[in-house]
Amino acid sequence: MTSSGPRSSGVTIYEVAQRAGVSIATVSRAFSDGAKVAPATRDAVHAAARELRYVPAAAARALAVRRSRALGVVLPHIDGPYFAELLVGFELAASELGFSVVLALDTPHTGRPSTVLDMLGRVDGIAFMARSAAEDGTVREVAALRPTVSVARAHVEGADAFYAENRESARRLTAHLIDHGRTRIGFAGTPEPGSDIGRRYRGYLDAMTAAGLRPGRHHEITPVEASGTALAEQILAEPGDLDALVCGNDEIALAVVARLTRGGMSVPEDLAVTGWDDTITARYLTPGLTTVRQDVAHLGGLAARRLAARIDGEPAQEPVTVASTIVRRRSCGCPDPAPPTASPTKESS
């Protein structure tokens, strides 16, 4: 049985200072208040710490003491419905198991890998959610010290991995657009390696290749509302380039449909649009948004339960994939599904 306790390399602050070519006081400031250290110096200290697998003293002391009954979650941001659902599912499962949740926002561009390292002393295990939440190297370092799981990102050795099924559903979704007679189909979203959107992009390419079609324009944009609106502005300025657009998530798709509609374009007549996530807004948008439903809250709950099991000493398991379902609405050319009918009520006598 794998131990859940820390594995210390015995690296000291003096060694980190020597490797980075700075004083120990500078190393201390880089971890306690990075804003007071020049960016280049701070980056050198963090790089040295990563290379030596150094854990700040406060966290190292906490690693040796009793469990905190807390689970850490690392996210790139908390904007949009996807991360909200993921976090709710995780927190509900953690609460049922008697754990609290500590949240940290971290991306490869913050210049502060210590955000995650500082969390180590306050939690019993950490879940990394989405590709842009910390570098893979940071995930490997944490997995060597604490039970670790990842959600919707490339599998890292030592960490349990959870995914929603993406590639095959994206292939079938794109093939459905082709069945509607669409041949100039573009893709919107940045396909980072190992990410959900990366797998969706591969599925889109699979369908285009199978149909003997050349992929349409690929708009590499971040999966947020503002990017979708900006893309719609571009489409309005240059109409006719595409007859369908596969969006990496609902947030992009909803913004595109709303802005195109206001700009006088008709969806799906002028441009068919699909999303991903089946958010509540997708059901009430006009036209209704064709999308892919995945139980994101369930995914978050699975990650929390698995992290708790790892803390109890269970070894890492093979990656787990949760099924996805295509939901067809009018934005792709299908008729909107009929609204549910209310059950008749009997009058009281």
From TrEMBL:
Keywords: DNA-binding, Transcription, Transcription regulation. GO terms for molecular function: DNA-binding transcription factor activity; transcription cis-regulatory region binding. Transmembrane segments: none annotated. The keyword DNA-binding applies. InterPro entries: HTH_LacI, LacI/GalR-like_sensor, Lambda_DNA-bd_dom_sf, Peripla_BP_I. SUPFAM superfamilies: lambda repressor-like DNA-binding domains (SSF47413), Periplasmic binding protein-like I (SSF53822). Pfam families: LacI (PF00356), Peripla_BP_3 (PF13377). Signal peptide: none annotated. SMART domains: HTH_LACI. PROSITE patterns: HTH_LACI_2. It comes from the Bacteria. Residues 11-65 form the HTH lacI-type domain. This is LacI family transcriptional regulator.
